[in-house]
Amino acid sequence: MHSLLPIQFVDAIARAGSIRKAAEGLAITSTALNRRLLALEDELGVEIFERLPRGVRLSTAGELLIHHLRTQAADFDKLKGQIADLRGERRGHVSIACSQAFVPYFLPAQIGRYRRDHPGVSFAVQVRDRAAAEAALADLSADLALIFEPVRLAEVQVLASARQSIHAVMAADHPLAGAPTVRLRACAQFPVALPTAVYGVRHLIDVALVRASISLTPMVEADSFDFLRHYPAQEQILSFQIPVGLPPAGMEPAVVSRPLDTRDVPEGRLYLCQLRSRTLPVAAAKFAAQIEREIDRLGD
């Protein structure tokens, strides 16, 4: 208990929204954790958390404190990476918040490639929708974000971007599988499976439907692109995805994809971002440079 740092227990409580749940995650008793929190609040002279009927939430002072603690932790990680580089080593930790499309193929390949050269670097991958990924940069819980169709980009710096068309995913024997591109009106003749409204793919499709006065009623709706990518093998249904989240040609022969005609649904953009004005730790900066090159290749 004595070795538990403020960044550890304050951050754990903030994320859990409950002292009891945070204590379970930290493998200590809730009484001991609450005692540590009360001692810190007494030292600062303010309440860090507002006590609610069900859980806790950060007070205004608590938000200032946790931002300070996370900034200190990020700066220390950067220092450790710089010292490791002086010794001819590459160590450090890289935290990435990303849209689901990057998880099955893109990120495993890129992280594996990086770690083959720098096995001392560890990674954390947080799957987030586009708004939550941007928020993770702002609260310093992520060094980098990979996002498709960001919500605002107000607090972030774009390091690289590439265009991505929306693809219709279907069974290999689907009636539309023989077309090089698919019109949106043709999709309306078949049952469809759509991602939920928080995702960029759904946003682009919804805007296109309104503009073209076309109605699509989803027979299946899911917040998992992995599910949506595989489900068309079960019936003659169309789902939608961007190329970075699709398997290489021939890897999954039961399912194929065809791009939607850009006259109907314009291309979206994927972005690699960091928090504006933040100097990244060495490992994160080096990994970002690798991803920038790969995204530039995607945009060719």
Helix content: 40-55%
Largest sheet: 5 strands, mixed
Strand content: 15-25%
Radius of gyration: 23 Å
Q: Which CATH class of the largest domain is shown?
A: Alpha Beta
In round numbers, the mean pLDDT is 88
Widest sheet: strand ordering: 4-3-5-12-6
Number of strands: 12
Kindly, what is the distance between the CA atoms of the first and last residues, rounded to a whole number of angstroms? 53 Å
List the domain count as a whole number.
3
CATH superfamily of the largest domain: Periplasmic binding protein-like II
List the total number of helices: 10
Order of helices and strands: HHHEEHEHEHEEEHEHEHEEEH
The SS-based structural class is alpha/beta
Provide the CATH architecture of the largest domain: 3-Layer(aba) Sandwich
Form type: globular
The low-confidence runs, each spanning 5 or more residues with pLDDT under 50, are none
Q: What's this, in brief?
A:
The protein is built from ten helices and twelve strands.
Question: Can you put this structure into words, describing what you see?
Answer:
By secondary structure, this protein is of the alpha/beta class. The protein has helices at residues 6-16, 19-26, 30-44, 60-86, 106-117, 130-138, 184-187, 200-212, 225-230, 282-299; strands spanning 49-52, 55-58, 92-98, 121-127, 144-148, 156-164, 167-171, 192-195, 218-222, 239-241, 255-259, 268-275. The strands form four sheets. Strands 4-3-5-12-6 form a five-stranded mixed β-sheet, with helices on both faces. It has a three-stranded antiparallel β-sheet with strand order 10-7-11. α8 links the parallel β8 (192-195) and β9 (218-222). It is globular and about 70 Å long.
